[in-house]
Structures are given as C-alpha cells and as structure tokens.
Amino acid sequence: GAVVSQHPSWVICKSGTSVKIECRSLDFQATTMFWYRQFPKQSLMLMATSNEGSKATYEQGVEKDKFLINHASLTLSTLTVTSAHPEDSSFYICSARDGVARSYNEQFFGPGTRLTVL
Amino acid sequence: KQEVTQIPAALSVPEGENLVLNCSFTDSAIYNLQWFRQDPGKGLTSLLLIQSSQREQTSGRLNASLDKSSGRSTLYIAASQPGDSATYLCAVPNSGNTPLVFGKGTRLSVIA
C-alpha cells in the first residue's frame, strides 16, 4: 500500500508554455501533499504544502502565480508551471501524507517528473 | 530553522564491507526521521522510518539508529553490494504535519 504516482514522468516543453504535473495517492487519502524541487546534484527543496480543499502554502522565494497548485480531492494534487523558462528545468517530486489511516504520518513519495524547458 | 547535515558527502567502498552513513539535525524536537535511497534520475525509495520514541529500526541489511537528544542518526549497511550504490538521504519533519527537511545526501559507490 501507500503508493504515490506522478504524471508525466518526463516532459519537454518550449519556453513560455505551461506544464501541468499530477500527483496521485493510489490507495490512501492524502490530506496533505508536498511539492519539492531538486536541481542536479542538489537535495530536495520544498516548494509548497498543499492541503485538500484549501490554498497551498508556498515557501519563501517560490512564486505562487508561477507555480499553481490545486488539491481538489483527497487523492489528487496538481502543480502547473506557468510560462515556463529554462531555469524552471528541474526534477519535481511530490509526497503525500496519509493523515487518515496512519498514525505516524509517514510521507510517501512519487517517482518524480523531469521537466526540461527549451 | 531545522538544518540537516550528512557526512560523508561521498563514499566509495569495496563490495562486502560494512559501512556507516551519518546524519545530524539542529533541532532535536523532531517527530520522526526517515532514510531514503535515490538512484540517479529517479524518485525516492523509503528505507526506514524511526519514530521519535524509538532508538533504532532494522530492515534486512540496513539498521538505522536515532539519538534524538544529540541530534544524530546513523544508517548502517552490512555486507555492502554493488546494487547498494545510490544516494542516501536523511530527512526529518518537525511535527506530523510539516514537510521534510532533507540533508544533501551521501553518494555511495560499492565497487565489485
């Protein structure tokens, strides 16, 4: 159990276009999802915290109008990179927390989405 | 603000050796601690989770210990294999509902 999927696994787009990344919890209800970004040879850095049914909380330095997050259901959160630029090229990883069935709040990670902006 | 440090940054060992990876954190008021494995270009695989009330967790050849008061955790890998080659990340949340703060990882190479 506790599987998190991401789609797409990789995407290449032109500068100025928008890209949507989906994060799904397949077998549990994710009351909270987190979005991280990882640049080459760097560790994961938190971008935003997404709670089902409410607005996302963004980390300092992350533009909320550029990285749109929607968490409309207990199993799906989406991250939309608007007007993407080459510097947005990165590995985006989501994690989901099962706040209903599990008492110890372990976070489960998706396989990541590699975004390349040309 | 929580900071997580991992030492060493990189490690190369011959196959069969036992090894220890270190993780330290600045704020000891953690909820739990997780060790992950990341292969190049891939996502994270959770290896072990230690609750704040626990001292250690074991899974196969892996053993993770936690000393919350001193802000340290170690990941012990017994009888290393080439397939263990990966980056190992340590991460902590400050409470149950907060995101994880990650260390920069230890890049392990096990040479056959």
Describe the structure in your own words:
The complex is a heterodimer of chains A (118) and B (112). In chain A, strands 2, 4, 5, 6, 9, 10 and 11 form a seven-stranded mixed beta sheet that branches. A four-stranded antiparallel beta sheet of chain A has the order 1-3-8-7, with no helix packed on it. Chain A is globular. In chain A, β4 (30-38) and β5 form a beta hairpin. In chain A, 0% of the residues lie in helices and 53% in strands. By secondary structure, chain A is mainly beta. With 112 residues, chain B is an all-beta fold. Chain B is 0% helix and 55% strand. Chain B has no helices and eleven strands. Chain B has strands at 4-7, 10-14, 19-25, 32-38, 44-51, 56-59, 62-67, 72-77, 86-92, 101-102, 106-111. In chain B, the strands form two sheets. In chain B, strands 2, 4, 5, 9, 10 and 11 form a six-stranded mixed beta sheet that branches. In chain B, β6 (56-59) and β7 form a beta hairpin. The radius of gyration of chain B is 13 Å and the shape is globular. Chains A and B meet through β4, β5, β9 and β10 of A and β4, β5 and β10 of B.
Would you spell out the secondary-structure blueprint of this structure?
The complex is a heterodimer of chains A (118) and B (112).
Chain A: E1 4-7, E2 10-13, E3 19-25, E4 30-38, E5 45-51, E6 57-58, E7 67-73, E8 76-81, E9 90-98, E10 107-109, E11 113-117
Parallel strand pairs in A: 2-11
Antiparallel strand pairs in A: 1-3, 3-8, 4-5, 4-9, 5-6, 7-8, 9-10, 9-11
Chain B: E1 4-7, E2 10-14, E3 19-25, E4 32-38, E5 44-51, E6 56-59, E7 62-67, E8 72-77, E9 86-92, E10 101-102, E11 106-111
Parallel strand pairs in B: 2-11
Antiparallel strand pairs in B: 1-3, 3-8, 4-5, 4-9, 6-7, 7-8, 9-10, 9-11
